[in-house]
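[09:14] KT: can someone run the structure on this one? pasting the chain below
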Amino acid sequence: EVGYDASSRVETDGEPSEAERLAVGQVVVIDAERRGDELWAEQIAVRNTAVGPIAASDVHRGEIEVLGQRVTIDDATRITDAGGAALGRGDLTPGRFVAVSGLRRADGSIVATRVESRAPRERVSVSGPLSVQGRNQLAVGGLGVVPPAGGVQPAVVERIALVVGHLDAATGMLRADRIEPAELERVVHIW
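[09:31] RB: done, structure tokens below
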């Protein structure tokens, strides 16, 4: 158990946020310090696995696809609107913009712990194993990634990375604005 309060710095996918926005089912990375017998969060980083539009949905199988990532939805998955009100699997329709929190299976699919509906935006993000697909092309799962103009750090390739950018409607690829290591070795859930 890790305590936090208003003095704990919070970010969501690299952007400043607030402790009040933390919610059950989110996957977080915590930098903590010991205070007596307790751990206290200095920084909490919410790490959504995919933030973007739903491309496909099969509510009977409990699956959606977001940014080329296969996402499993089960009875333990919290599905909410942006304000935290409960939604159902039937609300997860193609075109709906969502933030998926969850963990990856060995096959690369995501087991969602939380799916939050959000207002559509141009910037999308995906976190997962970054692989080389060809000259000047990378991929995370089933999503092709065009590296940013400055290239990508070699230490990030073939590791877990956070890729943030814009979907190219013509190619279906993610044009990355930035690619950075995803610090997942310290992942915990908010229960």
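[09:33] KT: thanks! Residues 185-191 have pLDDT under 50 and may be disordered.
[09:34] RB: yep, looked fine to me
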